[in-house]
Amino acid sequence: MRQRNTIHACLKAASAMAAALLFSTTLQAQESQFPERDVQYIIPFGPGGESDISARLQQKYFQQITGNQLIIQYMAGGGGAVGWSQLNEMDGDGYTIMGTNLPHIILQPMQQGAGYQTEDIKNFIFFHYSPDALLVTNDSPYKTLDDFIAAAKKTPGAVTVSGSGTYSANDIANQRFEALADITTTYIPFKGTGASVAALLGDQVQAEWGYTTTAANHSDKMRPLAVATDERHPLFPDVPTFKELGYDMTGGAYRGIAVPRSTPDDVTRELSEIFSDINANPEFRKSMEALGFVLIDEDVDQVEDFLAEQQRQYQRVAERMDAGQ
Amino acid sequence: MNSRPDVHSSGSAGVSIALGLATVVLAAGALWFARDMSMLAAIFPRTIGVLLLIFGCCLVVQALRGRERVSPQAPGHWGRQLALVVIVLAWSLTLKWLGFLASSVLACVLLMGIAHFHAWSARRVVVYLVTLLLIIAGFYGLFAGLLNVPLPRGRFWG
Amino acid sequence: METLGFMLAALSPFNLLLAVAGVAAGIIIGSLPGLSATMAVAVLVPVTFGMPTESALILLGAIYTGAIYGGSYAAILVNTPGTPSAIATTFDGYPMARRGDGDLAVTLSTLSSVIGGLVGGLALFCLAPLLALVALKFGPVEYFWLAIFGLTLISSLSEGSTLKGFIGAGIGLLLSTVGVAVVGGDTRYTFGSQFLLGGVETISALIGLYCIPVLIELVATPSEHLKPPEASRGVRFREGVTLMFKGKWNALRSAIIGTIVAILPGAGGSIASLVSYSEARRASPRSEQFGKGEPDGIIATETANNATVGGGFIPTFVLGIPGTPPDAVILGALLVQGFRTGPEMFTTNASVTYTFMGGLLVATVLMLPIGLLIGRYAFKSIVSVPKAILVPTIAFMTVIGTYAIRNNPFDVVVMVVLGVAGWLLARWGIKPSPIVLGLILGPIAEQGFVQGYLMGNATGSVAGVFFGRPLSLGIIALTVLFALYPLWSARRKRTHGEVVAHEQST
């Protein structure tokens, strides 16, 4: 009899516990409905680049915040166009997201056959940018930006500058600066930042259009003459901004994330909040800034205005480039 | 693929002339489509196009002068080879539409059929089919599960 | 002495375990066409976040070196390079396997890979800062001439008609221009298809051009794929060592070529192995045996491509410029861990760097037992599997591997179309190797040329840029030498033959 009672009590306790467990899990599920499983994060470039590195850093904090994995996949080709042109065909359930880059998604559709329009891409956040920087080797005769400008003015076109790609952030930066400083240089496009850096370090070119991130990676061998940020970059407190020197130039390569167009707005909002939270994490901020990135937080509410403004800027440069050809 | 000793054969000159002409057509196409590229982007394809044009003409001239040698074609089951080409081509085109697994299983079973030269027994069919499905399942698991490759799901099933 | 202590840290049980696991996984990954070292390394990067940096590096390095070696299995047994570095291994490896010497070929490739890996690893250990400076001397113009040098190898690679070899290379060069141009930014030859924007992926082209013809030939006749070995005779290790010993200079030369080519970012293992192959063939007294199953051919390519592993880490570590695509992924992983490349790697972070180098050497040595074990199994299974299973299995691996490179179903279509075209072309005398060589060297030649041209315009003398630099003049001289050598040797042979004939007649 006694034995039976204990069993009964045990059963009761167990069922109570089970109920509690069940209740608490449903509660939890209600609290955060999204994401319930791992999220695929497609990087439309090959592994190893800056987009990949920043995604890898987000990966760790995504898991901390949501308890689910951020699975990074690569879909390289056409400078990202292969991925972006297929984005809207993917499942719009919030479990597929894709990295986006500026100026790529603005400039590529201006060219023929990119396979998508800037408006097709449903960005929900832009979270950081690599500010443009004009880089020279440590032993370069150009000590300041003025030295560089003077050299370019002396013999127009004789100063060679390397950069990654044509119609790319580096190419645009060069065009913008040429217009602002009224100089002519020879821009030499390379495949990727690595090759462009090698050209500078090997003294094949006199300067390079790169980013603060490039300068941070190679700080033992090169220095920026100026950086395109609003305020001086914490990693380079002695390097002036273009603005300080009188050239109205801020910007660089911006990175954001988009979802397929069919993704519901509430899910998109959840995603935006998660990535804003990652951006707010002090540890994450620290490691991103150490690499040379500048964090921004153009979330789902602001992203449209932000893009419109960027589009206006790039349109102007692109028109100038076409006119110049 | 076997390299056999070079022998003169009656059709060889014809093949070389055809190949030379095909090269000329390819080169002309390359040059034609390079006409509205920007200067920097056009240099390389144009150079290659011109070189190919020259090579193609040389091949035709060489063949006409009878100096070209071509290995005779290896005998084989033309029907099976053609079937393989058709199956693999159809497979690649239906990957997205049918889904990766569905189109692959279908194509692999068909390929098994054309690659078998002996008589089928019921036992053999079962053993081979099970082996093949296990291999496909293994690799599919490796890519989809372990390596996180997003394989197309298609309209029927994963 | 301190560095030695750091290197010995690679022998800790955990690090050893990682090296064993990495090499084994790498070999299997490398042997499957389409599963590249880059992909394997990229997938494992998140796993390494929880590890100490040096252990993470050892795991990634072991996978990388194992994958480059594993690429030779598919090359030998199925005539399909598992990685682009193994293209030249197909030339002699497959003929050896066809005649029943597949086991010996695998053993030779194992021994060669270990030796090549050790030479590359030691160069990394001893000469890294010095060799990195050499890498920087190579500008756009030098890359251009290097690509031209590579293209002259066609004359030694194409069996039969040289003219057809050049046509094949031209086709490859044209294919390489498809997609968005790096210089100029135009979209070229995409015919409005957004799928072609990314161009023709080299590895998918490789799989198509080599693998599809094998499949087509497999279903042509009921005969066995490979001749089975006469009896159970182990891995023929002794025989392999003897051959290796005979080819020691060949191995050393190829390892040095591999290391040097790998230091140049972007050149890569495929060029390294092709250069050492043609060099081995040129130097060999049995040069006419090359391409028909000559063991020295395998020794040359496999030492060279494994030497590129250590060599490729040199610019990665010293300059922060990745030497090969897998290096780019490893570099990214280092940056995420908050680790900087450059001189610090050899000063403040020396413990990590040297432990990793030790680990890479340990992993290389481990390839010997692990490789022989897996290689024996791979050979036996390929020989014993009936065609009805072999054909769909190879086909399935081809399709899934091609898809997985860029997660793009259209790449599979391109692969199949290129494969069928390649099969037809091969029947008409245009072999796949020149096409692939054109595809690989095309972007290097084009970018080098246009960049050099722009540099020349800026200085006011295009000719001065292309012909005025000592290094480029050296490469030009080498190119001319290589291009003329076949003519010269043919003439020498003819006169020599005449002398012999004359002596016999008298």
From TrEMBL, chain C:
<feature type="transmembrane region" description="Helical">
    <location>
        <begin position="255"/>
        <end position="277"/>
    </location>
</feature>
<feature type="transmembrane region" description="Helical">
    <location>
        <begin position="412"/>
        <end position="430"/>
    </location>
</feature>
<keyword id="KW-0472">Membrane</keyword>
<feature type="transmembrane region" description="Helical">
    <location>
        <begin position="195"/>
        <end position="216"/>
    </location>
</feature>
<protein>
    <submittedName>
        <fullName>Tripartite tricarboxylate transporter permease</fullName>
    </submittedName>
</protein>
<feature type="transmembrane region" description="Helical">
    <location>
        <begin position="385"/>
        <end position="405"/>
    </location>
</feature>
<feature type="transmembrane region" description="Helical">
    <location>
        <begin position="166"/>
        <end position="183"/>
    </location>
</feature>
<keyword id="KW-0812">Transmembrane</keyword>
<feature type="transmembrane region" description="Helical">
    <location>
        <begin position="57"/>
        <end position="76"/>
    </location>
</feature>
<feature type="transmembrane region" description="Helical">
    <location>
        <begin position="471"/>
        <end position="488"/>
    </location>
</feature>
<feature type="transmembrane region" description="Helical">
    <location>
        <begin position="16"/>
        <end position="45"/>
    </location>
</feature>
<keyword id="KW-1133">Transmembrane helix</keyword>
<feature type="transmembrane region" description="Helical">
    <location>
        <begin position="143"/>
        <end position="160"/>
    </location>
</feature>
<feature type="transmembrane region" description="Helical">
    <location>
        <begin position="114"/>
        <end position="136"/>
    </location>
</feature>
<dbReference type="InterPro" id="IPR002823">
    <property type="entry name" value="DUF112_TM"/>
</dbReference>
<feature type="transmembrane region" description="Helical">
    <location>
        <begin position="354"/>
        <end position="379"/>
    </location>
</feature>
<dbReference type="Pfam" id="PF01970">
    <property type="entry name" value="TctA"/>
</dbReference>
<feature type="domain" description="DUF112">
    <location>
        <begin position="16"/>
        <end position="437"/>
    </location>
</feature>
